[in-house]
User: What shape does this take?
Amino acid sequence: MAAGERLIALIAAADEVRRLREIAGAIRQNGIFMARYGDLLALQKRIVSAEARGEGKRAALLRKEYETALSGFSDVPAIAEYLTLLEELDAAVQEAVGIINDGIARD
Assistant: This one.
């Protein structure tokens, strides 16, 4: 097994990733959560679009709207845990990417 495949397998087997998948499944089965999640994704797209068009003020307003919506959404314990796990996983992946890039740069 190549190093990249071993890394992916190691990440996939982590307890945090298993818990993340478990919570994600529960969220997908809850119509209310999915609707709210869809609203958050739509807001994210609007923010990206406003930024791409150079509409800084609009993007800032949308970011505030997004943060308000997100804080209400993350009041649900399972959602808060999901978001925390997602942040932790993202940080770990970014750290791994940095380590890999440093190794490649040295070669």
Observations:
- The two ends are 21 Å apart (CA to CA).
- The CA atoms of residues 47 and 59 lie 5 Å apart.
- The longest helix spans residues 77-106.
- The chain has a mean pLDDT of 88.
